[in-house]
Design the sequence.
């Protein structure tokens, strides 16, 4: 119970938000290593998951900078929630595409569906251009593909958010 009580105070400190930021930076670095070091071309679903990880990075940055302010923490929580849950949903959809019984009926876009005011794939194609096929499984570890690992990673981020919010609400009745 003491751990739960201590966890309730973590969002008001800088280091937990720094861990969120650093872990997402490491995931982005790993994605870029897979792309450029190992020659694995990212598909559109990989790019969307990459965006979700960038959202986690922004959440960590917002939390590091604004952890002393309730509104700042709320912004960081919202970014964390949207990014973790959206990334989880995209990863699940990606696994569905890869494991479809009939791959001819699975559709994977070629051009990212970014807003017209934020064409990341045109501004930074080295990071946001999709050049691979969603159905290909070019890498696996412990018999799990990259999107299967991303399901676990995004589920952990989501679970940590839920635990953090529950601890915070139970202890302080506020964020």
Sequence:
């Amino acid at each position: 119970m003491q751990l739960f009580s201590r966890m309730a105070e973590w969002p008001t400190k800088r280091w937990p938000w720094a861990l969120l930021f650093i872990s997402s930076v490491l995931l982005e670095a790993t994605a870029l290593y897979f792309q450029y070091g190992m020659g694995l071309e990212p598909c559109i679903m990989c790019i969307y998951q990459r965006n979700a990880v960038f959202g986690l990075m922004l959440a960590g940055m917002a939390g590091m900078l604004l952890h002393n302010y309730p509104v700042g923490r709320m912004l960081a929580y919202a970014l964390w929630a949207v990014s973790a849950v959206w990334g989880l949903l995209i990863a699940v959809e990606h696994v569905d595409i890869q494991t479809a019984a009939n791959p001819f009926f699975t559709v994977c876009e070629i051009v990212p569906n970014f807003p017209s005011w934020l064409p990341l794939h045109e501004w930074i194609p080295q990071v946001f251009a999709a050049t691979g096929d969603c159905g290909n499984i070019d890498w696996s570890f412990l018999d799990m593909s990259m999107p299967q690992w991303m399901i676990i990673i995004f589920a952990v981020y989501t679970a940590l958010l839920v635990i953090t919010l529950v601890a915070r609400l139970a202890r302080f009745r506020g964020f």
